From TrEMBL:
<protein>
    <submittedName>
        <fullName>DUF2946 family protein</fullName>
    </submittedName>
</protein>
<dbReference type="Pfam" id="PF11161">
    <property type="entry name" value="DUF2944"/>
</dbReference>
<dbReference type="InterPro" id="IPR021332">
    <property type="entry name" value="DUF2944"/>
</dbReference>
Amino acid sequence: MDDQVIAAMARWPDVPAVRGWLSLSVRGQWRLHPCGRGWGAPDEEPGEAITSPRIVAFIGRNYQADDTGRWFFQNGPQRVYVRLDGAPWILNLDTDTQGRPRLRTHTGRDYGPVTRWWLDPEGRLYSGSGQGAGLVADRDLARVIDALRTAGGRPLDDWLERPEPAGITVRLASAGEGDIPTDAPLGLLATHDLEATLGFVRRP
């Protein structure tokens, strides 16, 4: 969190929190809802994309969660709760200096190690880590699936094609010589169990 934000919170500690003004899309784009009707209103606003790199970076630096899994942007002294259309972190596939795959969040942070993977009925891939729940962006989904390997080093094609796939353990195929590979279970997740299982609130 920025120093000036921390200072503003100390100076004005009782500013009420707001909802309905900010959302995060499934592709990791911040959207502003200018009339505060981002959710929970009969005339819910679709929102306007925030495109200023300076503002996007400011939101990203001051974005976090409370103890109940509600994510927010600390805008100076005011807490702005965020509607999450996918998950708290939207994940993209990047490569490290050795060309090995790694995950990065929509805010540009490294993500992981992943401790759990889930597939939902629509084929979306979610993850869990110490940073919180993530959703692999749709444009990178096929590449992430290709980069995942079972504990035996096999790709996921056989597992995904089973009529009733059982849980397995997988890892990103990124461990190099001297690295310690991180295995994580992969299972199926019902849509109605998403928030409770992953520990976040989509509409706080």
